[in-house]
Design a protein that fits this description.
The protein contains 16 helices and 2 strands. It has 310 residues and is an all-alpha fold. The longest helix has 23 residues. The two termini are 55 Å apart. Keywords: Membrane, Transmembrane, Transmembrane helix. This is Cytochrome B6.
């Protein structure tokens, strides 16, 4: 029996195919589509808020915040654990103080860390060096008196402008805060507040705390609809959809009693923990685990399968 002869490859019809051309066209189309879709649907690249941008855009707010740090009246100074020891501070769930239970894990002294240490580390003019020496030589009560008096003067000054503050006994506070403003505008303060001793400077706790003590950051957040009262947890910068899956977590912040509670974060954390645990345990909860069998939704989803079984 004669075996079938295998035809040669050149016996088949052929056509020219330019692989480089096809690759170039595919690459160009992909790049154009990616760029076009990114331009239409991606989030805007909003510049970050830094100490430099804050001190440049709102110098009066920066100065008032620096004075509050020296006076010990800022949010950071009164926050409590995990940053500092403040009696009675910290959120609770009933009698359980979660923050106090965790203790101070990231020590922060706002006056020292945000104001005084950066001034000591930078090369200073004689008047600044003298102001630092005067501050260090004063008692805690005297430091508090200077800072509180200057804070009151700034509150009464037009637009909070230090240049328009009424004369008074403010000690070295005006000199210290003016020099700190200069450092911040130059951009050096952003680097000084990062945690030292690490190759990668990614510990932004102190710069963020300082920023959050002022009004500038919260004003920017309000403009971008990122505050808690604006469902900010699930929003993105600009008018773009954000993390929609966080709707339940941020929902609680919109209703009483949580939206006016000082312990809202701890209380909502507890609620979400209970709900998450309940979701995990659904297959083990009598009655609830039988809901799919009672509703028979699965038969609707798999109706083609059950139709063939009849």
């Amino acid at each position: 029996m004669k075996s079938a002869q295998v035809p040669e490859s050149d016996a088949f019809p052929t056509r020219r195919y330019d692989l480089v051309k096809e690759f170039t066209i595919a690459l160009a189309v992909t790049v154009l589509l990616s760029a076009g879709l990114a331009g239409l649907f991606s989030s805007p690249n909003v510049p970050p808020t830094t100490l430099a941008s804050w001190s440049t855009a709102a110098p009066n707010d920066f100065t008032a915040t620096a004075v509050a740090e020296l006076a010990g009246t800022s949010t950071s100074a009164q926050y409590g654990p995990p940053y500092n020891h403040v009696p009675g501070a910290g959120q609770k769930i009933g009698p359980l103080g979660l923050q106090r239970a965790a203790g101070v894990r990231i020590p922060v002294d706002p006056a020292e860390d945000f104001v005084l240490r950066p001034l000591r580390q930078a090369p200073e003019q004689p008047e600044v060096t003298a102001a630092l020496a005067q501050w260090n030589a004063a008692s805690a009560d005297q430091q508090q008196s200077w800072s509180s008096a200057y804070a009151d003067a700034l509150n009464k000054a037009p637009d909070g402008d230090p240049a328009k503050a009424a004369p008074g006994d403010y000690g070295p506070v005006p000199v210290l805060t003016a020099r700190l403003l200069t450092l911040a505008r130059a951009g050096s303060l952003d680097g000084q507040l990062l945690s030292p001793g690490r190759f990668y400077q990614t510990a932004y706790t102190k710069p963020m705390l300082f920023l959050a003590d002022g009004l500038y950051l919260s004003d920017r957040a309000t403009e971008q609809h990122l505050t808690g009262a604006q469902w900010g947890m699930m929003n993105e910068t600009g008018n773009y959809p954000g993390q929609a899956w966080l709707w339940l977590s941020t929902f609680w912040y919109q209703i009483d009693p949580f939206k006016s509670s000082k312990n809202a974060d701890a209380e909502i954390w507890a609620i979400m923990a209970v709900l998450s645990l309940a979701l995990i345990l659904v297959p083990f909860i009598p009655g609830i685990r039988s809901v799919p069998r009672w509703t028979r939704v699965h038969r609707l989803v798999w109706r083609d399968y059950y139709r063939t079984r009849r």
